[in-house]
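Q: My labmate handed me this sequence with no annotations at all. I'd like to see what the chain might look like in three dimensions before we decide whether it's worth expressing. Could you predict it?
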Amino acid sequence: MTETPVERLVCRMAVPTIISMMITTFYNMADTFFVGRIGTSATAAVGIIFSLMAIIQAIGFFFGQGSGNYISRRMGAQDAEAASRMAATGFFSALIAGGIISVLGFCFLTPLARLLGATDTILPYAEDYMRYILLGTPYMMASLVLNNQLRLQGNAFYAMIGLVSGGVLNIGLDPLLIFGAGMGISGAALATILSQLASFCILLAGCNRKGTLPIRIRKFSPSLARYRAIMGGGLPSLGRQGLASVATVCLNVAAGPYGDSAIAAMSIVMRITNFSGSALLGFGQGFQPVCGFNYGAKRYDRVKRAFWFCIRVAAVAMTALAVVEFIFAPDIIALFRADDAELLAVGAQALRFQCISFPLLGWIILCNMILQNLGKTVRASVLAVARQGMFFLPLILILPAHFGLLGVEMCQAVSDALAFVLAIPLGRSILKELDAGPPQAAIKPPAP
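A: Here is what I predict for the chain of 448 residues:
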């Protein structure tokens, strides 16, 4: 981790994380694809519940990234005991939090569906889907912790195996349960939680492999110092993912006056853009353990070199992807629901707006990752909440009021452009600190 040329090392670490991210988002798309055969309202319901799943992911990433970033730095500093205690604390804390969310969700099922943006026609589908998702929430959340911890220990390949196995299972179960068993949208949700359970079991087994930190209940050591460390590394992820959920709810509400077709179209575009950005996120996640280990080992020159390598690759890849999706936007949307002309028109235009901002995402995401990985919590959190919070939420109120449905379609692209402007000085600041040799006080382990 501290001697191999960083370009080769990042690529080696990134291949399994790219596959993991793409498979994860692909089987989310598979739900939308198969549910689209049921009807427009069912397709919209999947988009409605996606915001709940984003909350689950936000909390999972909070504990996973928070504990994983700390583990990465401690292992770079040869402190295995502190790393092991943090691994158990992050895992069991997520399991408990998931159980609480599951219970509360079942108690307030219908009000929650309404809050997420369900209309009268969407509500029955949304409730059916949500029941199963809430059932699997505890282990879905813990699975995200295991994945991040394994990846940030440098064991990205096994993390990939866990996610890919679940993804393949989900894609196979979707048509079997939706159409074969006649379960409809409930079958899609059941397929999701069964595949997530399979991933969880594989990832938990991976923690007992040689070279990884095992999860042991006796190592569960909750303390203010440890949760402060988790917050330092995980708060940006919580802000980013949590606000993504709020933004999705606001997007659904803003699209609601234009009918179920508009809600379904924006849901499809969101799944497509998430899939498009998943390779970038996976590439950045390959950079994170390289960054954490070398920062812990005081090899700041390697951190900077790896960062600039990732920026160059991301810029080229996202620009190429933007061109392809812009040209074929109507055909891509038609894959999900070809018999709804209004959905096709709204979806194609929204996707083309999104493509315009694709080349900017590399700088935004990688700046956020390096700030988060090095424990620069305030700056990382500001940048993490910028896209979906600082800019998107005000814009989703302002733009539709002035431009109608066009304002809904362009909102995310405009917020991405503003986030890019904010990311420029934040990225430059951390690079200057690395040139000066940042202090190590921020990465000391918590007291036992």
